[in-house]
Amino acid sequence: MALLETKEMAMQFGGLRAVDNFEISINKHELVGLIGPNGAGKTTIFNMLTGVYEPTEGSIILDGKDVTGKKPYEIVKFGAARTFQNIRLFKDLTVIDNIKIAYHNEMKYSTLEGIFRLKRYWKEEKKAHQECLDFLKIFDMEDYAETLAKNLPYGKQRKLEIARALATNPKILMLDEPAAGMNPQETHELMETIHFIRDKFDIAILLIEHDMHLVMGICERIVVIDYGKIIAKGTPDEIKNNPDVIRVYLGE
Amino acid sequence: MKQNTKKSYIFNISSIILLFVLMKILMSANILTKYYTGIVIFICINIILAASLNLATGYLGQLALGHAGFMAVGAYASAITAIAIKPSIVEFCSTLPEGIKFLINPATVILLTSLIVAGIIAGLVGIAIGIPALRLRGDYLGIITLGFGEVIRVVINNIKPITGGAQGLSGIPRITTFNNVYWITVVVVAILYTLTHSRQGRAIISIREDEIAAEAVGIRTTKYKVMGFAIAAFFAGIGGGLYAHYIAFLDPNTFGFMRSVEILVIVVLGGMGSLTGSIIAAILLTILPEALRDFAEYRLLIYSGLLVIMMIFRPQGIFGTHEFSMSGFIHKLRHNQIISPRKEVKEGE
Ligand SMILES: Nc1ncnc2c1ncn2[C@@H]1O[C@H](COP(=O)(O)OP(=O)(O)OP(=O)(O)O)[C@@H](O)[C@H]1O
Ligand SMILES: [Mg+2]
């Protein structure tokens, strides 16, 4: 059974059909690319999959459960996490606090236990602190734990956003143009990170990207959309030679 | 790390006790006269009001312009409760056996009961206002709380049999003293501090930082917005109750929009997201108008001037989002981050 599946998903913004009849099926551990020209509807698809928008038509099945119309925080619980096209970090907080916020639901103590600092508060906070540090270690960022997120170099900010999404313990991770604004060196590192996390955390990844080299290099399957409609699906080689895709990308 | 926490607990608690003892000595020596003691009590009440508003505005990031409204709800709730329960509590206490009688002060029992009622009612009103307003993103809350503050005043003015209406409410037990207001302030600030340093507090702060991102990592933003706002209203209610039991007379017009602005100015001046900032600013802004009594008409001018200067030179407030800690300060001194004795040695060589 597919991990994430959509059926006839569509989004109508007034007179604009931003996404139409979008069907995708992603299996466990798969790395799928979603590409298309500017304004094609990629981010809108992410927003529907993560509950920011409710699709005007169709349904979304995540890990066997119908999550259509669920709130973003609920969808996180069902196992989908995301990053944003324009990085959205908790800028004025430290790197480790960014992770700890994503770790919120893993910590088990009540508001009163927190206010009066009962035993469970100390136990859970200590455990969370250690686990978040370990988590940063995986991303080679433990030295930055006490740095404010806004003071990180750009590439590291992107990385932190990915780490933060992973801290919610997802089954599928959705990355919205993670390489945007990166130099080739940083992009290369990012490709390695993406590969690494898929194996390390055993998750599926859905990737929106403009950088063709990156998408073709790491995705097993690619879905191409234009004006909200799917125009091609297939392996990187099939996509490269698809006349519709070539027309859309050269005609831009 | 835990060792450090313990040390700073001991340090903080002993400084709080020391300050209390110092004040008591100054009072018994009559250096702090009754008039000055009154100012100290007002400082404490303002600290409670500002610290609670800071939770809603500084930590949660929601512009709230009706804090005086919650204060009014608390003040009236507390006053009415105290008037109602006073006879039976006094009677009950007099029936207690001699052995434990001296342990229980009826005034304290009345005060604490009334304050808890005040906090709960103000908190419930906060929830009622917060749920519709906070579900929307953006500055709707500012407008709604602004309206709420005015509506509350009009309501109090009009339910004369309960509140005394425009003539005011008198006969309120005068039971707020330096002793109880000091310790209540300590408890309120401590609770707000530990709350903002718990996972729930982190969730509240994440909403200020980026609501969409917070929701995308699994934070129930609506729940925490309402919770933060309700707790702020709860403590504003307690602040209002303490005020009622100090002044012993309530006039609905003292809880107008300007009162809300005064509290907001304290928060902005001290730093949004800094409790110590709110404390320092509450002290400054309570003493300042008293010192400048002759210029009472210019009070608004002074406040606006202060805000403008602040916005130009230090928009984040005195402390920004940082807490001032004595032990942290000493630590910095020791590690040459403020002064550098090692350098002096070099120069001596
Ligand atoms: N909230 C909204 N209301 C109205 N129209 C919207 C809204 N969000 C997106 N759109 C429109 O939907 C279309 C698809 O936008 P979307 O952001 O999904 O594109 P995209 O593929 O992510 O583009 P890009 O590569 O530039 O990020 C665009 O025409 C956009 O203007
Ligand atoms: Mg986009």
Give a brief rundown of this model.
The complex is a heterodimer of chains A (252) and B (349). Chain A has 252 residues and is α/β, with parallel strands linked by helices.
Structure overview:
The complex is a heterodimer of chains A (252) and B (349). Chain A is of the alpha/beta class and 252 residues long. Chain A has 2 domains: 4-92 and 154-250, P-loop containing nucleotide triphosphate hydrolases (Rossmann fold, 3-Layer(aba) Sandwich), CATH 3.40.50.300; 94-147, no CATH class. Chain A contains 10 helices and 10 strands. In chain A, strand 7, helix 7 (184-201) and strand 8 (204-208) form a beta-alpha-beta unit. Chain A is globular, with a radius of gyration of 19 Å. Chain B has a domain at 33-257. Helix content of chain B is 76%, strand content 0%. Chain B contains 16 helices and no strands. Chain B starts with a helix and ends with a helix. The relative contact order of chain B is 0.16. Mean pLDDT of chain B is 88; it is low at 337-349. The interface between A and B is medium-sized, with 38 and 26 residues. The site of magnesium ion has 3 residues of chain A, from helix 1.
Label the structural class of chain A: alpha/beta
Biggest pleated sheet of chain A: 6 strands, mixed
The average pLDDT value of chain A, as a whole number, equals 93
Work out the helix count of chain A.
Answer: 10
Task: Quickly give the CATH architecture of the largest domain in chain A.
Answer: 3-Layer(aba) Sandwich
Low-confidence stretches of chain A: none
* Relevant CATH superfamily of the largest domain in chain A: P-loop containing nucleotide triphosphate hydrolases
Number of strands of chain B: 0
**Number of DSSP helices of chain B?**
16
Query: What is the CA–CA distance across the termini of chain A?
Result: 37 Å
Strand order of the largest sheet of chain A: 6-7-8-3-9-10
What's the CATH C level of the largest domain in chain A? Answer: Alpha Beta
Rg from alpha-carbon coordinates of chain A: 19 Å
Low-confidence stretches of chain B: 337-349
Q: Percent range for helical residues of chain B?
A: over 70%
Largest interface: A-B, 38 and 26 residues
